[in-house]
Amino acid sequence: MNTSRIDEAILAAAQPSWRKVAMIVATAAKAEGIDVTDDEAGYRVIVSRIEALVQAGRLAAQGDLKKWRHSEVRLP
Predict the structure, then answer these.
(1) Is the separation of the CB atoms in 53 and 39 below 8 Å?
(2) Three-state DSSP state, 53
(3) Which architecture does CATH list for 3-74?
(4) Residue 55 DSSP one-character state
(5) Quick check: 76 and 29 in contact, CB under 8 A?
């Protein structure tokens, strides 16, 4: 799995305004070159990368990231 490609897709889907994590996951999953399965397990891989990007300060978050439809991220 190419985590740098997943990170690129996530950051490309993110905006300076808040966006639902579920929307970022769906957009990133459809990006070309993303090697994740199109199911819950594949989406969890993307969410784990979102969490890593938040930890690294590359994304800002609000809410519990485990609740995709009730949390949001944005570019800092």
Answers:
(1) no
(2) helix
(3) Orthogonal Bundle (1.10)
(4) H
(5) no
Name the residue ranges covered by the structural domains of the chain.
Answer: 3-74
Average pLDDT score over residue span 64-70: 93
DSSP states along 3-47: HHHHHHHHHHH--SS-EEHHHHHHHHHHSTT----SSHHHHHHHH
Give residue 60's region: left, alpha or beta (phi > 0; psi -120 to 50). beta
Residue with tokens 């949390």: 71
Give the tens place of pLDDT for each residue, 10-48. Answer: 999 999 999 999 999 999 999 887 878 777 788 999 999
**Distances from the Cα of 39 to the Cα of 35, 43, 73, angstroms:** 12, 6, 21
